[in-house]
Design goal:
The structure holds two protein chains of two kinds. By secondary structure, chain A is α+β, with helices and mostly antiparallel strands. Chain A folds into four domains: 97 residues, Uridine Diphospho-n-acetylenolpyruvylglucosamine Reductase, domain 2, CATH 3.30.43; 126 residues, Uridine Diphospho-n-acetylenolpyruvylglucosamine Reductase, domain 3; 238 residues, FAD-linked oxidases, C-terminal domain (Vanillyl-alcohol Oxidase, Chain A, domain 3, 3-Layer(aba) Sandwich), CATH 3.40.462; 39 residues, Vanillyl-alcohol Oxidase, Chain A, domain 4 (Orthogonal Bundle), CATH 1.10.45. Helix content of chain A is 33%, strand content 15%. A five-stranded antiparallel sheet of chain A has the order 5-6-10-8-9. Chain A has a four-stranded mixed sheet with strand order 1-2-4-3. In chain A, a hairpin with a 5-residue loop joins strand 8 and strand 9. In chain B, helix 4 packs across helix 5. Chain B contains five helices and no strands. Chain B is globular and about 35 Å long. Chain B is mostly helical. Chain B has one domain: Cytochrome c-like domain (Cytochrome Bc1 Complex, Chain D, domain 2, Orthogonal Bundle), CATH 1.10.760.10. The chains are: A alpha+beta, B mainly alpha. Chains A and B meet through helix 4 of A and helix 2 and helix 3 of B.
C-alpha cells in the first residue's frame, strides 16, 4: 500500500524523497510498507479501517541544521511534516499524523543531553533524549538532581512536556510543560528561534527565566503546530535528602469533601509530593451486590455506600502522602498533615509508612516494605524511569480520555455519576463508579481516566471503543470536563469542546497558523488547529 | 558469555558494561548494551515494580509459554536475528513495533548475537 502526500503524484513524491535523501543521507529516509509499519499507531481503535491515518514516509535528521533543511524541503514540495521525538505516545496516537500522507519528522537522532546543571538545578536536552537517557546521564555522573518522569520512562522530556505530560513528584515538577524553561524552535520557514532568555545573545539564564521580554510564544508549541522544537530546558529538583510516606483513611463517603480540601492546602503550600487518592472499598467490586450499588444509574446514596463500608470494616477513602526534603522537615510535615486531617474529620486514622534517606536502594525502589496497601508507584515517586507500568496494559493496548475536573469532592461525586451513567451502554469495565478516585497528576487540578482496551483482530470491539470515546468526550464537555490530551483521531472532537464565544480561541490560533505557516507544513490539524489549506 | 545477573538496576549499567566489555566479541558486547538499554527494562530478569514478581514483558511471555520456554529473553537461545527482527519491527500484542531510528538492523543482529551466547 503506497501512501502519497496530499496534492502530490508519484513523481512529486519521488522528488520529495530524493531531496530528503540528499539532506540527511540515504539511510535516514523511509517510505516502504515494511519501514513505515512502526510509524502506525499500534494502539489505534481504527486499526486497519478507512479512518486510520497513515504517514507516507519518515525522515530522521541528525542535527538542527538538517531539521531546518527538511522543513525547507517540505515547504518547497508542500508536504506536511509530523514531528515526533522518542518514546511511543501510546494512548495518544503513537507516531501517527493528523493528515494522511504526512511525512513523519523523526527526531530520535537529536539525542544529546546538552547540559545538566546541579548548582542551578536545570537541564537542556534534545528531543531524542529519553527519560532513561537523562536519568543515566545524571546517575552515571553522580549529579545531585532528581528528574520527574512519566510512565513509561522511554518517553522524551521534550515530547512528553509538549503534549503536557505528567509525572509523580512535587507539583512544580510533575507538570512537565510547566517545568520547562526555554526552548529552541525551527519555524515553518526553516528559521531558528529561541524563546525566553535564549532570545538574548550572550544571556546565561536561558533555563532560569522562561519569559524574557514581551509575549512568550512557548505555549504555542505545546500540542501545537507552529514549529519543530529542537532543544528544551527543564527545571530539576535538587536531590532530596529524605523520603517519607504516610496513609490517612477516612470512614465515610462524604468525608472526601473535607479530605480534598486538606490535600489542596498541603499541596498548594508545597508540603507534599504527589498525593494518591484511593477507595479501600474498591476491594469489594468483586461482590456483585456491591458492584451493582457502586455503578447504579444515578449513583448510590451516601448511606448505601457507608453501610457497605461499615459492614466490611473498611474506610471509604484513603490518601497516600509523600514528603521529600530534609528528614526533620518531612517528619514535621507528616505530623502536621496528620494533626490537620485527624482533628477535622471524625474517625480518620493515620498510618506511618516507609521512610528512608535518598538515593533509595534497589529494595526501597521495589516498594515491598510498605506496612499497608499503597497506591504509590515508588519508582515514579522518586524520579526513576521504569517500564513497570506496562503490567496494566490489557489486550493489544488502549486509548485514553482524561477529563479535567475541579479539585472538589462534590465535583468528584458528580463526575462519578454522570460519566458512570454515560458509559453504561458500552460493554466495558466500570471506569467511573462510586469508588473511582481522582488522579492528582497536574499540579492544581484533578483528572479521571477512561482507557478502554483495543484488540487489533476485533474490529467490532474497536468500533465500540471508538464510539464510546467520542461519546464520553461529548458528555463530559456538557458538564465542563475537558480532555487534556488526545490522539489525532480525537483532536478535532476535543478541540471543538473548547468553544467559548463561538470558538474564538481556535479562530485566533488558526489566524496565527495561517500567518506563520501559510503552506500548512507543520503538523496540520494538531491540537485541532488547521491551516487554511486543509481547513475545508 | 551472557551476563545473567541483569536484574537491571539502572545504576549498575555502567559497571556491567565496563566489566564485560573487556573480553566480549564486539558485536556481542554491543548487543548486550543495547539489550540492557532497550529490552531489559521490560524483558529482563528480576522483579517488576511495586511488588510485581516479574517485569511486564517477562511476565507476559511466562504466561504465554506456560513453562515450555523461559519468560526472560536472556534465558532463550532460539531468537536468531530474523525472528527477533519480526517481533521488533512488527510488535506483538501490546508490545510496540520499534522504528529503525530507535533500533537499527545492526542493533537487532547484535541483540540476537548476545542472546545466542551460552548462558
Amino acid at each position: 500500500m503506497s501512501i502519497l502526500p496530499p496534492d502530490l503524484d508519484e513523481a512529486g513524491f519521488a522528488a520529495f524523497l530524493s531531496d530528503l535523501r540528499v539532506a540527511v543521507g540515504e539511510d535516514w529516509v523511509w517510505s516502504s510498507d515494511t519501514d513505515m509499519f512502526p510509524y502506525r499507531d499500534s494502539f489505534s481503535p481504527v486499526w486497519n479501517t478507512p479512518e486510520e491515518i497513515h504517514a507516507s514516509s519518515a525522515v530522521a535528521p541528525a542535527d538542527v541544521a538538517q531539521v531546518q533543511e527538511v522543513v525547507r524541503i517540505a515547504g518547497r514540495h508542500g508536504v506536511p511534516l509530523h514531528p515526533i521525538s522518542t518514546g511511543k505516545n501510546f494512548g495518544y496516537g503513537g507516531p501517527s499524523p493528523n493528515v494522511q500522507g504526512s511525512a513523519v519528522l523523526d527526531l530520535k537522532r537529536l539525542d544529546e543531553v546538552i547540559e545538566v546543571n546541579e548548582d542551578r538545578n536545570y537541564c537542556l536536552v534534545e528531543p531524542g533524549v529519553s527519560y532513561f537517557d537523562l536519568y543515566r546521564h545524571i546517575t552515571d555522573r553522580g549529579l545531585k538532581v532528581m528528574i520527574d518522569c512519566p510512565d513509561p520512562g522511554w518517553g522524551s522530556p521534550v515530547g512528553n512536556s509538549l503534549d503536557r505530560g505528567v509525572g509523580y513528584t512535587m507539583p512544580q515538577f510533575r507538570d512537565h510543560f510547566g517545568a520547562h524553561c526555554g526552548m529552541e524552535v525551527v519555524l515553518p520557514n526553516g528559521e531558528l528561534m529561541r524563546t525566553g532568555m535564549g532570545a538574548m545573545p550572550g544571556a546565561n539564564s536561558w533555563q532560569e527565566y522562561p519569559y524574557g521580554f514581551g509575549p512568550d510564544p512557548s505555549g504555542l508549541f505545546a500540542q501545537g503546530n507552529f514549529g519543530v522544537v529542537t532543544k528544551m530546558g527543564f527545571r530539576l529538583m535538587p536531590q532530596p535528602e529524605y523520603y517519607r510516606t504516610g496513609l490517612i483513611r477516612v470512614p465515610r463517603r462524604r468525608d472526601l469533601v473535607k479530605l480534598v480540601q486538606h490535600v489542596n492546602y498541603l499541596s498548594d503550600s508545597g508540603m507534599v509530593s504527589e498525593v494518591r487518592f484511593a477507595s479501600p472499598l474498591s476491594a469489594l467490586l468483586g461482590n456483585p451486590e456491591f458492584a451493582a450499588t457502586a455503578t447504579k444509574l444515578g449513583g448510590p446514596t451516601d448511606a448505601e455506600m457507608d453501610a457497605f463500608a461499615s459492614a466490611a470494616g473498611l474506610h471509604s477513602w484513603a490518601i497516600d502522602l509523600q514528603f521529600l526534603g530534609p528528614e526533620a522537615a518531612t517528619l514535621a510535615q507528616w505530623e502536621y498533615a496528620k494533626d490537620r486531617v485527624l482533628s477535622d474529620i471524625p474517625g480518620a486514622e493515620a498510618l506511618d509508612g516507609d521512610h528512608f534517606a535518598l538515593p533509595a536502594t534497589e529494595e526501597q525502589l521495589d516498594n515491598v516494605t510498605q506496612p499497608y496497601p499503597s497506591a504509590i508507584r515508588r519508582r515514579g515517586a522518586l524520579g526513576v524511569p521504569s517500564l513497570g507500568i506496562w503490567e496494566i496494559v490489557r489486550d493489544d493496548g488502549h486509548v485514553g480520555f482524561f477529563p479535567v475536573l475541579p479539585r472538589d469532592g462534590e465535583a468528584i461525586f458528580e463526575l462519578q455519576r454522570v460519566l458512570g451513567d454515560a458509559q453504561r451502554q458500552y460493554p466495558l469495565p466500570p471506569y467511573f463508579s462510586a469508588v473511582t478516585a481522582p488522579l492528582f497528576w497536574h499540579s492544581h487540578t484533578f483528572q479521571m481516566v477512561f482507557a478502554p482496551s483495543i484488540k487489533r483482530d476485533d474490529p467490532e470491539h474497536n468500533a465500540m471503543v471508538h464510539r464510546s470515546m467520542k461519546h464520553m468526550v461529548a458528555v463530559a464537555a456538557e458538564h465542563g470536563w475537558g480532555d487534556y490530551r488526545a490522539a489525532p483521531i480525537y483532536q478535532d472532537d476535543v478541540a471543538a469542546t473548547y468553544s467559548f464565544n463561538n470558538g474564538s480561541m481556535r479562530t485566533f490560533l488558526e489566524a496565527m497558523k495561517d500567518a506563520v505557516d501559510p503552506n500548512g507544513i507543520i503538523a496540520p490539524g494538531r491540537g485541532g488547529i488547521w491551516p487554511r489549506r486543509f481547513r475545508s | 558469555m551472557k551476563y545473567l545477573a541483569i536484574a537491571l538496576p539502572l545504576s549498575a549499567l555502567a559497571l556491567t558494561a565496563s566489566v564485560s566489555a573487556q573480553d566480549e566479541d564486539p558485536q556481542v558486547a554491543h548487543g548486550r548494551q543495547v539489550f540492557e538499554h532497550m529490552c531489559a527494562p521490560c524483558h529482563g530478569q528480576g522483579p517488576g515494580d511495586d511488588g510485581s514478581e516479574m517485569l511486564p514483558g517477562t511476565a507476559a511471555l511466562t504466561e504465554k509459554y506456560a513453562g515450555s520456554r523461559p519468560g526472560a529473553l536472556e534465558l532463550r537461545n532460539d531468537l536468531p536475528a530474523p525472528v527477533l527482527s519480526l517481533f521488533v519491527r512488527r510488535g506483538v500484542g501490546a508490545m510496540s513495533p520499534f522504528r529503525a531510528s530507535e533500533l537499527s538492523d545492526e542493533d537487532i543482529a547484535a541483540i540476537a548475537a548476545y542472546l545466542a551466547e551460552p548462558d
